[in-house]
Amino acid sequence: MIFGTGIDIVDITRFERFLEERNTRLFERLFTIHEQEYCAGKAHSAQHYALRFAAKEAFLKACGLGLREGLTWHDVEVVNDSLGKPDLRLYGKAQQLFADMNLSKTFVSLSHDGNFAVAMVVLERV
Asked: Which sites bind Mg(2+)?
């Protein structure tokens, strides 16, 4: 059964600007080291950062919480399987809330066009 859905859209040019400004503190606050390494290794890294940020926001919306209840940006990590399919890896408070809400699965869709990155997250309950 579907528990919640969340969607978020991000302007990629914001992340292009953050990269140009070399705003490393922002990236360290928003993204895990694995996400930073993944994005930095891509030709269009701003696009990949924007997609990951949108997915984190979409997850928070799907939970109906926002960034509160002790959650941090590092509690939600966007990962890809061997075929490139995106998914979420949860840590800390996000993992605890996921279990407390009896959630069983996340579904993630990422897309981009022009200057925009969009993510949708669906949460399933057992």
From this structure: 8, 57
Please, which residues bridge with residue 7 across strands? 120
Domain that holds residue 114: 2-125
69 is in an annotated binding site: no
Helix 33-40 to helix 45-63 angle (10° resolution) is: 140
pLDDT string in tens for the chain (126-residue length) = 999 999 999 999 999 999 999 999 999 999 999 999 999 999 999 999 999 999 999 999 999 987 777 899 999 999 999 999 999 999 999 999 999 999 999 999 999 999 999 999 999 998
What pTM, to 2 d.p., does this model score?
Answer: 0.95
3-state secondary structure 114-126: CCEEEEEEEEEEC
Report whether 48 contacts 39 (CB < 8 A).
yes
Domains of the chain: total: 1
Task: Tell me the CA end-to-end span of the chain in Å, nearest whole number.
Answer: 7
Q: Which two tokens stand for residue 12?
A: 């990629």
CATH number, domain of 93, equals: 3.90.470.20
